[in-house]
Design goal:
The complex is a heterodimer of chains A (506) and B (251).
Chain A lengths: L1 H22 L13 E3 L6 H10 L4 H15 L23 E3 L14 H9 L6 H7 L13 E7 L2 E5 L2 H6 L3 E4 H7 L1 H7 L10 H9 L4 E5 L8 E7 L10 E6 L4 E9 L6 E4 L2 E6 L4 E8 L11 E12 L5 E8 L4 E4 L2 E4 L5 E10 L4 E10 L5 E10 L4 E10 L7 E10 L5 E10 L5 E10 L2 H9 L4 H12 L1 H4 L4 H14 L6
Parallel strand pairs in A: 3-7, 6-8, 7-9, 8-11, 9-12, 10-13, 11-13, 12-14, 13-15, 13-16, 14-17, 15-18, 16-18, 17-19, 18-20, 19-21, 20-22, 21-23
Antiparallel strand pairs in A: 1-2, 3-4, 5-6
Helix pairs in contact in A: 1-13, 2-3, 3-9, 7-8, 10-11, 11-13
Chain B lengths: L1 E10 L5 E10 L4 E5 L6 H9 L4 E10 L2 E2 L5 H6 L2 E4 L6 E5 H15 L7 H14 L4 H5 L1 E2 L5 H15 L3 E5 L7 H14 L5 E6 L3 H5 L4 E6 L2 E6 L2 H9 L2 H7 L1
Parallel strand pairs in B: 3-10, 3-11, 6-9, 9-10
Antiparallel strand pairs in B: 1-2, 1-4, 4-5, 7-8, 11-12
Helix pairs in contact in B: 6-7
The chains are: A alpha/beta (506), B alpha/beta (251).
Chain lengths: 506, 251
C-alpha cells in the first residue's frame, strides 16, 4: 500500500492549507501580549552595551568583545547594494533591550515562568511546557506519524524564556541552551567559536548584533552523536520599537548530526521594527547540520505600513572533510528581508545545500539568496531558489558561487525560479559566479513564469476558489523546497504560502 | 437540466460576435452531440458555459437545473454540477494528481455544505475509478498532466469527471489526438457515467467518437448558431457528405 501511505500525508497537508486559508483572513500572529516590560533607554552606546552585558551577568571578556564590536560599528555604514528601499533607520531611536519584568530574576524552571508568556507560546502552537509534551508523547521512535519530539528554546523579545527537554539532551551529551547561559556555563566553547564564522567586523548588521545581542540559542553536539530529537528556537518580538538581536551558535563536532528548526513571529505594529540576527554554524569532519527556518515576521499592512526589517547574517563553516550543511528557508514575512545564508566549503568533499522559498506580497521587499564558497577539493553545492512575487512586491535572488583555485573538481548546481502573480510586482535574479580553477563545474538555470490564467481556470472549473487555486499552483511551484523541510515544518510552510498570498488575485 | 436560451457572446477584447443566438436544451439522462466545422463556436460555447474569462455575454441566458448560472464564478458552476473535459488539459507542475483531485472534490463538497471526504474513502474511490480507466498508481502520483501523453491526459479528464460526479458533462473534442484504443477507453469511461440524472454535451469534429458514445440528439453548429438538430443519423450524414450541404441548406 505504498501509494496509500504517501497520499495520506499529502492529504493531511492539503486539508490544513485549505482550513488555514478559510480560517485566517489576516496575519495570524498579530496580537500582542500585555506583559510588564523592562526597557533599557533608547539608543545604542557604550553604556547600553555594558548594561546588556551586565543584565546577562556576563564575564568581562564578553563585555569587552561587545565593546570592541561597538567601536567598529560606529565607523561602519549601512550597505546599500541590495535591491530594497526603505526609510532611513534611526538606530538611536530603537530600544536595544527589553525583557518581561517577570524574567528579572531568571526562572529556575519552566514552572516559574510567567504564565502569560507560556500562554503566548501556546497561542503560537509551541509545545513549550515539557510536561505537556511528555504527557502526550512517549519517545521520538515510538510515534513516527504523530507529533515528533522537538526540544524548544523560546526567545521573547530579548530574553530566552525557557528550553525544553534539557535533561534528556544532556544524557546524549548535547548542550542546548540560551546563549547567555552558554556564555556563563560553557565559556571555553563560546570563546573558541563565537565570531569564528561571522567575524565581528563582517558587516554593518552583524557587527551591530555582536555589540547588542541580548540572547539566542546555543547548541553543541559532541563527536559521533546524532542528536536524539530536532532542536527548535522560536523567536517572538513583542515589545514596540524594540529591535531584536539574537545570536545563534551551533557546533556540530566530528561525525555528529543535528536538525535545527527556527520559527519567527511578531505582533502587528504600524511602525517598522528592526531585527538583525546572526547565526553561526560550525560543522566539523563528517558532521551534518540541517537548519530550517520558517520566517513569518509581520510583513506590514497592505499599504506598506509597519512590518519587520529583517537583516540577517547566517553562515555555516564546513571545517572538516565530508562535512555537510543544508539551509532550508521559507520566508513569507518581513517588510524588508536581507538575508544570504551561506556555506564555506572548506573541508575536502564537503557539501552545502540551500533551498529557499521567498514570498513577497503587497509592499514587501526581499533581497535574499546564498553564497557558496568552495575552498576544498571535490566540494559540492546545490542551490534551489523559488521566489514568488505578488502585489507590488519586489523579490530579488542574489547568489554567489565561488570556486577557489584549490577547490579542484568541485561542482555547483543552481536552479533559480521566479513566479509572478499579477502585473505590478517584480522578480530579479542576480547571480555572481567566480571560478578560479578549470576542473570545477558550475551550472545555473533560471526561469521566470507567471501564474497562468489557464491553470487557475482549470482549478476553478474543478471547484476550487480562486485563492485556493493560487495556493495550490504556488505550492506546486515550491514543491522541491517544501520536500526538503522536516514534515511538521512543511505543513506549516504550506499553510503560510496560502495565507501570505491572500488578496494577491482578483 | 441545461437550458441555453438565445445565447449571444462576443470576445471581450475585440468587437467580434462568436455565438449568435444559441438555443439548446440538454435533458437529464440524454447525450447531446454538437458537431460543426472549425470556427463555428463549439469550444467558445463550452468555455462560456463553464465561466472562462474573456467573453461578454451580450444576450440570452443559461440555466442549470433552474439556476441562472451566467453570473456565477466558475467554481460556483462546478459546485452546481457543471463539468468541462478540456480539449487541452492544463499542466500543473509540482501538484500531485491525487492531491489535485481531492482538493477539487472537497472544495465542491464544502461549497454544497457537505462534509469532506475522508482520506480512506477518497483513496478507495479513486483507485476503483482509476482502474476502470487503466490509470495506474504512478499516474495518480505524478503532477497533474505533466509529461502525460495525449491519451493519458484525456483519460485523466474522464477520471476527474468520474470522481466529481457532475450533473452536466461537457466534453470538448475529447477524441482529438486519440488513437482508436485510447478512444475506446475514454468512451467506455463516459458510457459508465451515463445515467438518468446526468446530461452530456459532447463536442466533436468526427462521427467516430459517436460510434462509441451513442448520442440521443445531434446538433450541427455553424457560424455561432445551431443550424440543424436530429437523431444519430445526422452525424452519419455529416460523415458521408461533410458540412457543405447542411450549410447551404441553412443559408
Amino acid at each position: 500500500m505504498e501509494a496509500g501511505d504517501t497520499l495520506q500525508v499529502k492529504d493531511g497537508v492539503d486539508q490544513e492549507t485549505i482550513d488555514a486559508v478559510k480560517e485566517v483572513s489576516t496575519y495570524k500572529y498579530g496580537w500582542d501580549t500585555d506583559i510588564e516590560m523592562e526597557y533599557a533607554p533608547k539608543g545604542v552606546n557604550e553604556d547600553i552595551v555594558k548594561l546588556i552585558s551586565e543584565k546577562n551577568l556576563e564575564p568581562e571578556w564578553m563585555t569587552n568583545w561587545r565593546l570592541e564590536a561597538l567601536e567598529r560599528w560606529k565607523k561602519m555604514t549601512e550597505p546599500k547594494w541590495a535591491m530594497v528601499d526603505y526609510p532611513e533607520i534611526d538606530f538611536q531611536d530603537q530600544y536595544y533591550y527589553a525583557r518581561p519584568k517577570s524574567m528579572v530574576e531568571k526562572p529556575k524552571s519552566l514552572d516559574e515562568v510567567d504564565p502569560k508568556l507560556l500562554a503566548t507560546y501556546e497561542k503560537l502552537g509551541i509545545p513549550l511546557k515539557e510536561q505537556m509534551i511528555l504527557a502526550g508523547v512517549e519517545g521520538p521512535a515510538d510515534k513516527p506519524d504523530g507529533e515528533r519530539k522537538v526540544a524548544v528554546d523560546a526567545v521573547f523579545d530579548s530574553v530566552s524564556v525557557g528550553t525544553t527537554f534539557k535533561s534528556e539532551l544532556k544524557k546524549a551529551g548535547v548542550i542546548f541552551c540560551s546563549i547567555s547561559e552558554a556564555i556563563k556555563e560553557h565559556p571555553d566553547l563560546v570563546k573558541k567559536y563565537l565570531g569564528s564564522v561571522v567575524p565581528v567586523s563582517d558587516n554593518f548588521y552583524a557587527t551591530l548584533n555582536s555589540a547588542v545581542f541580548s540572547d539566542g540559542s546555543f547548541v553543541y553536539i559532541p563527536p559521533g552523536v546524532k542528536c536524539p530529537m530536532e532542536l527548535s528556537t522560536y523567536f517572538r518580538i513583542n515589545a514596540e520599537n524594540t529591535g531584536q538581536f539574537e545570536r545563534t551558535l551551533i557546533i556540530a563536532d566530528k561525525g555528529s548530526y543535528v536538525s535545527y528548526l527556527e520559527g519567527c513571529t511578531a505582533p502587528k505594529r504600524d511602525t517598522a521594527q528592526l531585527h538583525a540576527a546572526v547565526v553561526e554554524i560550525i560543522v566539523e569532519e563528517d558532521a551534518e547540520v540541517k537548519y530550517s527556518t520558517v520566517q513569518n515576521w509581520f510583513p506590514g499592512d497592505e499599504n506598506g505600513n509597519g512590518g519587520i526589517y529583517n537583516f540577517v547574517t547566517k553562515r555555516a563553516d564546513c571545517r572538516g572533510d565530508r562535512a555537510k550543511v543544508m539551509w532550508t528557508q521559507v520566508d513569507t514575512g518581513s517588510a524588508v528581508t536581507w538575508k544570504y545564508p551561506s556555506c564555506i566549503l572548506r573541508g575536502d568533499e564537503s557539501q552545502g545545500e540551500f533551498y529557499s522559498i521567498a514570498i513577497a506580497n503587497n509592499h514587501q521587499q526581499a533581497d535574499t539568496g546564498t553564497k557558496m564558497l568552495h575552498l576544498g577539493k571535490n566540494t559540492k553545492s546545490r542551490i534551489v531558489s523559488k521566489g514568488i512575487s505578488a502585489g507590488v512586491a519586489q523579490n530579488t535572488y542574489r547568489g554567489q558561487v565561488n570556486m577557489h583555485p584549490r577547490a579542484k573538481n568541485s561542482r555547483n548546481y543552481t536552479q533559480c525560479d521566479s513566479l509572478l502573480i499579477g502585473d505590478k510586482c517584480g522578480a530579479h535574479t542576480v547571480p555572481y559566479i567566480e571560478v578560479k580553477n578549470n576542473s570545477s563545474r558550475v551550472e545555473h538555470e533560471a526561469t521566470t513564469s507567471k501564474v497562468d490564467d489557464d491553470q487557475l481556470f482549470y482549478c476553478r472549473q474543478r471547484g476550487m476558489g480562486e485563492e485556493e487555486a493560487v495556493a495550490l499552483v504556488v505550492n506546486g511551484f515550491c514543491k522541491d523546497v517544501l520536500q526538503a523541510l522536516p514534515m511538521e515544518f512543511a505543513m506549516e510552510a504550506q499553510q503560510l504560502v496560502a495565507i501570505s498570498l491572500e488578496g494577491s488575485v482578483g | 437540466m441545461l437550458k441555453i436560451n438565445n445565447l449571444h457572446v462576443s470576445l471581450e477584447d475585440e468587437d467580434k460576435e462568436i455565438l449568435k443566438g444559441v438555443d439548446l436544451t440538454v435533458d437529464a439522462g440524454k447525450v447531446h452531440a454538437i458537431m460543426g466545422p472549425n470556427g463555428s463556436g463549439k469550444s467558445t460555447l463550452s468555455y462560456v458555459l463553464s465561466g472562462k474569462e474573456g467573453y461578454n455575454v451580450t444576450d440570452g441566458s443559461v440555466e442549470l437545473n433552474g439556476d441562472d448560472i451566467m453570473e456565477l464564478e466558475p467554481e460556483e458552476r462546478a459546485a452546481l454540477g457543471l463539468f468541462l473535459a478540456f480539449q487541452y488539459p492544463i499542466e500543473i507542475p509540482g501538484v500531485g494528481n491525487m492531491t489535485f483531485l481531492r482538493t477539487a472534490l472537497n472544495a465542491q463538497r464544502k461549497a454544497r455544505g457537505e462534509d469532506e471526504i475522508s482520506a480512506t474513502d477518497f483513496l478507495r474511490l479513486v483507485r476503483e475509478k482509476a482502474a476502470t480507466l487503466k490509470i495506474d498508481s504512478d499516474m495518480l502520483k505524478r503532477p497533474v498532466n505533466v509529461g502525460f501523453s495525449g491519451g493519458e491526459k484525456k483519460r485523466n479528464e474522464i477520471l476527474q469527471m468520474a470522481m466529481l460526479e457532475p450533473k452536466v458533462c461537457i466534453l470538448d473534442e475529447t477524441d482529438s489526438g486519440l488513437d482508436v484504443d485510447a478512444m475506446k477507453l475514454v468512451a467506455n469511461g463516459v458510457n459508465a457515467l451515463r445515467d438518468e440524472g446526468r446530461g452530456f454535451l459532447v463536442i466533436t469534429h468526427y462521427q467516430r467518437l459517436l460510434d462509441h458514445i451513442k448520442p440521443d440528439v445531434v446538433h450541427i453548429m455553424a457560424d455561432g448558431k445551431i443550424i440543424k438538430s436530429g437523431g444519430p443519423e445526422l452525424a452519419l450524414e455529416v460523415e458521408n457528405n461533410g458540412y457543405s450541404d447542411l450549410l447551404d441548406e441553412a443559408s
